[in-house]
Amino acid sequence: MLAVAIKRDYYEVLGIRRDATEAEVRQAFRRLAKQLHPDANSDDAEAEERFKELNEAYAALSDPERRARYDRFGHESTGAGEGGFDFGTDLGGTIFEWVFGGGSDAAHASRGRDLRVDITLTLKEAARGGTRTINVTRLEWCDECHGTGAASGARPETCPTCRGAGQVRILQNTFLGAIPVTTTCQRCQGRGEIIRRPCSRCGGQGRARRGSPVEVTIPAGVDNGMRIHIRGQGEAAPRGGARPGDLWVYIHVRPHPAFQRQGCDLLCEAEVSLMRAALGGTLEVPTLDGSERMRIPPGAQPGDQFRLRGRGLLDPTQISAPPGDLLVVLRVTVPRKLNERQRQLLRELAVSLGEELDEPPQVEGEGSGLFEWVRNIFGSRSSPRADEGDE
Predict the structure, then answer these.
(1) Considering the chain, what is the average pLDDT of its residues?
(2) What is the pTM of this model?
């Protein structure tokens, strides 16, 4: 199941004002963390995603320097998706204990880490979408011990320190005095069991790093900064845990030499000669699927914009929405080299249009050649101006 995620404002995630103090940021995080923590919402499939979003927002706004960069430049300045999405680390013992007064990595050890992969597309690839196979280097279960970490014939044993609980209670000195705190067992690292004969291939870790192909389905019309979320394609959970992490694919689209993107619309320039702009006619313009003929009206001006409907991009967040348009901006070209006859004809045309020239034209007669033909065309033109090309 794929989804294109649009990141929410960090202040909105925490429910605080933009001028909130550091203390208010901490209070908001602690309050929401208790509500949204996945351990307290086991029946809510989206609780984990909301908690990761909360952790990412707090990581950015609790640090003064990162918060200043975020206020100025937005999400791109915070490194979001790199450290903030590490569910197996950032949301481990320290934050868990700070929020709840205790906790264990064992609560999180059953899930592997999320991973991030960046892919770069051409504009045409982004417009059409499709599938792409990428190689993801990640920790996967060891083939020898199948994730248990124990050698062949051996089995993990119950930790004698915590007796399988993964936690021990200690007295911790705080400004309120000595307070009993439940913390992670250091001997078994919160797993509740130890391995006396570790697997020779993975050294008792239960996982090995290797590259694996993953097929990514890219929705048509994706843009820079969009993310594709693929569940279960992150790292394997440690020691045979049931849930692997997720994979986040970040999209980057290369600039195109001919087209600029404006949402779902595309913008391009098309060159047209001075005579064709004045007299009108058809013009070949580029599209993502090849060239296409477009009709321009007589008297088209430099900078005039014409619209080819449906030649733009789809909106990946609205499957049923129609595609955008192609906006064509005319760029009128003026000939640089003219012979004497051509210059004379242009002088005659300029005089007929009321232009005042620096040098007087040498008119060969009222009914002569191109002068009379152009005057008749401009004098009899009455076609209404078009604002859209033929499709």
Answers:
(1) 79
(2) 0.57
With a cut of 70, say whether residue 122 has pLDDT above it: yes
Strand partners, 292: 285
Higher pLDDT, 178 or 89: 178
Q: Which residues contact 354 (CB under 8 A, 6 or more apart)?
A: none
Q: Which domains, ranges and CATH numbers included, belong to the chain?
A: 1-100 (1.10.287.110), 260-380 (2.60.260.20)
> Phi and psi dihedrals of 156, rounded to 5?
-60, 145
Using CA atoms in the order 93, 28, 36, 89, what is the torsion angle rounded to 10 degrees?
-30
Q: Are 7 and 70 in contact (CB under 8 A)?
A: no
pLDDT band at residue 212, thresholds of 50, 70 and 90? very high
The Cα–Cα gap between 47 and 39 comes to 9
Neighbours of 201 (CB within 10 A): 14
Q: Contact, 389 vs 328, CB < 8 A? A: yes
Helix locations, the chain, DSSP H: 10-14, 22-36, 47-61, 64-73, 87-90, 93-100, 106-109, 123-128, 274-279, 340-352, 369-380
Distance CA 330, CA 268 (A): 9
Cα distance between residue 350 and residue 361, in whole Å = 9
CA distances, 333 to each of 26, 76, 232, 364 (Å) = 62, 40, 56, 28
What beta strand segments (E) does the chain contain?
A: 4-5, 115-121, 130-141, 157-158, 167-174, 177-184, 193-194, 207-218, 227-230, 247-253, 260-262, 265-273, 281-287, 290-296, 305-308, 326-333
- Provide the pLDDT for residue 85: 31
Residue carrying structure tokens 């952790």: 55
Does residue 170 sit in helix, strand or coil? strand
